[in-house]
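Deliverable D5.2: sample structural annotation.
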Amino acid sequence: MEELDLILESVKQDMDAAIKHLDHAFQKIRAGRASTNMVQDVMVEYYGAPTPITQVANISVPDAMTISIQPWDKTAINAIEKAIINSNLGFAPSNNGDNIILNVPPLTEERRRDLAKQAKVETEQSKITVRNARQDGLKELKRLEGVSEDVVKGVEEEIQGLTDKYVKACDDHLKTKEAEIMKV
């Protein structure tokens, strides 16, 4: 029965990964406040190689509506500014020669709805990942030989229970994020 436990553990790990990915995706969806997470995935062309912005600059949030990016190498400031513009984050960086300031504009009602839609899309992707993990677990279960039908049925029900639990978790995360986004 060790094989059954391995299948269940694998399914659970895949579903946990889906929730972690959803949390990471939600961090990038801004809810009206500045956050270093908004720019952490920006890639800067630094000495000919794409480099994460966090490896070429110090990023801070001096107030709720401002992100400050201070490059460790002053020659990289133009490359950082270009990377932010090309990342389509919707920020207009201002470069004062020493650092880059990003003013986070207040969200309009239309932009809030767009962000809520984006959150729904991310949630659906996570639910698909959860369902795929269920499918993979059920396929592995079917491959096992010498296991009674009752045991297989029990494990199938356990996998379905996990699926329901994680799909509900995705929906709960979405409700929380939507409330955060729509709060004025």
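Annotation notes: Helices lie at 2-28, 77-86, 109-143, 149-182. The longest strand covers residues 57-63.
The annotation will be released with the project's public dataset once the embargo ends.
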